[in-house]
Structure formats: C-alpha cells, structure tokens
Amino acid sequence: MSTGRAAPDDKAAPDDKVQQLLDGAPGFDFRPGGPLHESHDMGILAWGLGPEGQPPVITGIDVALVVRDGCVASVQTVLTSTPERPAEPVPAPVPVVVRSRRP
After folding, report:
1. Which of 16, 18, 63, 90 could lock onto 76 through a cystine, CB 3.0 to 4.6 A?
2. Alpha helices per DSSP H over 1-103
3. Which of 62, 57, 30 has its CA nearest to residue 46?
4. Three-state secondary structure call for residue 79
5. Rounded Cα distance, 34 and 102, in Å
C-alpha cells in the first residue's frame, strides 16, 4: 500500500504521479476497472495497468480522501494483483438458508 500526499495547493500532483508511472512503463496504460464510487468525502476507483490492448498485469484500488473545494488530501493504493501475486479466482456463491425461529 502506498500513500500519495500533495501540498493543499498542488492540484496537478495526482496527474503528475500518474504520468511519472506511465513514463516508467512505455506502452502501458491505465484503465478504470469499474465506475468511480463516491461517498461523503471519499472516492474509490478500481483500475488496471498493462500493455495497450492487453489484459492488465497489475490491478488495484485507489481510495482518495477529499477535503474542502474538491482538493485531494490523500490517496491510498491497494494492489489487488501483480505478476508475482495474481488475483485468485472468486469462489462460487454459497447458498444461504434462513429459517424462521417463530413457533
């Protein structure tokens, strides 16, 4: 997990960080892994990074805390899969039976 912290007035910092990552991985691109979710002062975005036109080789989730005027106060990144630790398959749902205890 990593934390990105920018000075309150540095609105370009998140874009600069993304560009820095892309510059270090030529031919790769970031892509959303789903819609942006927002709740109160938090935004959550799943994403993938990989060769253009190919499945992502790294996936993760960013959680951004937003303070006044829409400025990002911090970003927490959780890697959900990497080449060394691929994503595990999601198990099939288990049926749940709920029984009433009423007489």
Report:
1. 63
2. 13-23
3. 62
4. strand
5. 42
Residues 32, 45, 61, 4: is their CA dihedral positive or negative? positive
Segment 43-71 shows an average pLDDT of 89
pLDDT at 14 (0 to 100):
65
Structural tokens at position 62: 């960013």
- Reply yes or no on whether the pLDDT at 66 is more than 80: yes
Pick the more confident residue, 34 or 95. Answer: 34
Host H or E run for residue 43: strand 42-51
Amino acid at position 46, single letter: A
For residue 95, which amino acid is it? P
CA neighbours within 13 Å on the CB side: how many for 34? 10
DSSP state of 91: P
What is the pLDDT averaged over residues 84-101? 74
Beta-bridged to residue 44, according to DSSP, are: 37, 63
